[in-house]
Design brief:
Strand order of the largest sheet: 8-7-17-18-19-16-20
Structural class: alpha+beta
Biased composition (Basic and acidic residues): 1-17, 53-62, 105-120
GO molecular function: monooxygenase activity
Region (Disordered): 1-21, 53-76, 95-263
InterPro entries: FAD/NAD-bd_sf, Flavin-dep_Halogenase_NPB, Flavin_halogenase
Largest sheet: 7 strands, mixed
Helix content: 25-40%
CATH topology of the domain at 498-575: D-Amino Acid Oxidase, Chain A, domain 2
Number of strands: 24
Number of helices: 25
Biased composition (Basic residues): 212-222, 240-250
Strand content: 5-15%
Amino acid sequence: MAALRRGDRGADRERARRSPALYPRARQIGGLAVAHSFEAPRRQRHRLFAQADERGRGDGDLAFRPARQAADRTARHSLPLRAAHARLGGQLRCARAGGGLPRTARIDQHRADRDGHRTAEGAVPRPPAQSGAGRGIQRRHRARDGARAGLHHPPLQAHPARRHRVLASLRGDARARHAAPQDRAVGRARRVHPLSLGDVPSGKLAGDVHRLRPHPRGRQPRVGRDRQGQGLGGDEADARKRRQHRRRHAQPPPVPRNARSVTAPEPLRSICIVGGGTAGWVAAAMLAHLCPDLGVELVESDDIGTIGVGESTIPPFLELIAKLGISESDFIRETQASYKLGIEFRDWRVKGETYFHPFGTIGPQAGLTEFYHLWLRAKGHGLARGLQDFAPAAVMAREGRFTLPFAAPRSPIGGAAYALHVDAKLVARYLRRFAEARGVTRTEGIVTDVEARPDGFVRTLRLQDGREVSADFFIDCTGFRGLLIGKTQGVAWRDWSRWLLCDRAIVVQTANAGPPQPFTQVSAQDAGWRWRIPLQHRTGNGHVFSTAHMSDDEATATLLAKVEGETVTDPMTVPFRTGVREAIWRRNVLSIGLAAGFIEPLESTAIHLIYRGMDMFFRYMPAQDCDGHLIDEYNRRMTADYEEIRDFIILHYCVSERDDTAFWRACRTMELPADLVRRIALFRAAGAIPETLDGLFRNVSWQSVFDGMGVIPRTHHPLADRVDMATALPDLDRAADSLARAVAGLPTHARFLADHCAAPPPEGSRA
């Protein structure tokens, strides 16, 4: 409440002259109302009662006695005994604590007179206090005579109308004579419309009538008007006319001096995608599904082939399927897909050794530390189990069995995750049907010329047959050519070939030589590595190599000599370059897929980066002006994703112990990126993995590759020492055995596919 000042004793008389009808009503109702509404805290009330006892101002127990008596009398009315005691008792206790507020001994019946004023029969006001010491004024304000003082409750300090009513109720108190100027300026309070002309139960008074609602801050109550808009001295018709006049001549709120008019930029209305394939149709499908009001046109030509190499995915790819609302089982059938639980690496550390990179978690909860550090300490105490013995995805892959992990969340296999092996061309065909059914327009043609505006924004594409295609925004999916992002926008390519030596791949498809396995197999070769990706009715094979260390003919011969099953396609050579654009997005051109960057598919990240690029675009989707801040943030985040994947791929090469060929010796001696050097040093020191913002590869992935490549930390995390090894070792053995038994009861991968999502053989298949 505003501070009360000592001084001019004529202030009270001046206020009474301005509002002659306020004080009788306020003494009878206003004091009770505020007393009930703003109770002092319990500890503060007890302290004030104790001070009153010391000064001989009254018996502290008497402060509670009227409340109990009033509650007993009120029990025969509509309110229960406990509610009446709480409401009326709180009212009287707060009146006692305030010192200057009226205390009521009897509040059985309250009547409304003909003027609408409330009267409390038997109301006995407390004698006015003579000094600030006994009025419940905060001690920090009681410095000396003439010092500022304030009442207890903070809500009174924020509402002038409430301060006015409290001061009115204190007419007999010395504090009312020293009201602040803003309190003296408040006009007469509004009339309270009478509830009835008969008796009003005290419980009803305590519950409803006392609610004096404050005006919004900065506005004072209108003089002579009640809640119904009826003037104290006029009729309702005049009041209605005055309200209409105020609304008709109302002025708009003033505009701050520093306010500036802001015009929203024009939103995107049309987007053109140049190029098809997996990248183009993923972009088209996401735009059609997430932005149905946006005009989307895709320009591609059947004369320009697509690579279609990326046949293996990682778990985030399933987020794309779910986001588009596509049935997973239907997608698997249409794309001849199979399930993938991880990647098996052969001959990478040394010839003859194998390790597994699983999807999902490893091991049960280990208290305050990661399971890896508990396992690391247990290995020092004689644990014979390997790290992957505790990974459900790795155990299922090893046994050739599969089930959906989320179908058994409380079992040992609940922590596994999975992805898909897919036919990239079938994926593009499926997404094309999906997008065209949702309004995407496909235009057959080859882009021969690009027209740009003076500010560099692309305006129109000219096709070979003379047609023109215009749009507000363009997405470049033209592969390594980079027709828009490279040739038109002039964005340079950042080359990473000094770290990733492989630059070519030989691909071939074969018939399945046996049941498809639920994992990708990657085998190190003399000048690169070889992949094997099983689908339902065929197997994709490829040989990634460095042309500086092996010729195309040698690479092709090596691949054909080691594939399993009869070949169903001729070998195809796919040259590539690893790196990323200096800017993936410039002006109104966004590059997706190979046009934005490429990293060799050792960890199956090609399709993921397509989805990631579009998902990030929706986060920072621009208007037609393509704000530079959005572009800069997008480029920063996407470049960080490419660099993270680059470092993870380099790790497989640089920590290898192989030195049997020039290729592997070059991998071991090359200079590494600074971030990767820091990661390796942290892990060697104490098994620590630095956190990344929204990173793709979690700690489980880094720990699996480090462990598989023989990189062991010098020590484990100190929190692992809190675990008792006498009980931990048997528990770990039981956990591994329990996981093995759970996996043994699962169907095989081939049986699960046949039962839930079997795909018909492709047309023209030799199978």
